[in-house]
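Listing S7. Sequence submitted for prediction.
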Amino acid sequence: MGKQDTNLGTPPPQHSGHRERLRERFRNGGGDALADYELLELVLFRALPRRDTKPLAKSLIAEFGSFADVINADFERLRNIKGVGESVATELKLIRAAAERFSREDVIGRSVMSSWDAVVDHCRRTMAFEQKEQFRILFLDRKNAIIADEVQQTGTVDHTPVYPREVMKRALELSASGIILVHNHPSGDPTPSKADIAMTGQVVEAGQALGITVHDHLIVGRQGHVSLKAQGKM
C-alpha cells in the first residue's frame, strides 16, 4: 500500500472561488466591470497568492481614496499600512511604472497638434497624483513631434525650482525647436500662481534669444488641468 496523500480531499481556500469570479468578470467586462477595490484585489493576487486580498484592498482604498491614489502612493507610505510588505508595495509600484511607460510610448514621436488630448492625458496620468511638485519638459522637433519627455526637477509640496538657463541648455542638447512646460500642483487645484506665470515668462524670454519656442505651460492636478496659453497668460 502506497504512502497516503495527506493533501487528498483538502478543500481549496474559501477565497479561491471569489478570485476566479473576479477574473471572469474582468475577462468579460474589463476594468469597468470592477469596483476600485476589486481591481486592486486582482493586482494583489500576484503578491499574495495564498491570502484573501479583499480586506487589504478595502483598507488601501479607505486610506488613500481610490485605485489611482493607491497606485500612485509613495512606497514608504504603502509600507506603513498593515499587511503591506515589500512584495505588495513593489507590485503596486510596478503597475504605476507600467502605466507611465505605456503612456510615454503613446505620445513620443507624435505631433502635439494632432494628439493634444493624449499629451494632456499623459501629463495628468504621470503627475497629477504626485505628492511633491515636479517640473517636466516635453521637447519637440521642427514638426512639433515629441522627441523627449523628461522630469527636470522635483521640489516640495508647493514649490519646484526652475532655472531657465538649464531648460534651454537641455533643449539645445536635444536639438529641440520647441518645448512644452508641465508641472503639477499636489494640492489638486491646477490654478496658476503668480510665481508660475512669472517663471513661464522667464523661460519664454530665454527661448526667444535662442530660437526655441515655448508652446505652452500645463499645470495638472487631481481636479483637472490648466493651459497658460489658453488662458492668455504667456
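Caption to Listing S7: primary sequence and predicted C-alpha cells for the chain studied. The domain at 16-101 is CATH 1.10.150 (DNA polymerase; domain 1). The longest strand covers residues 146-154.
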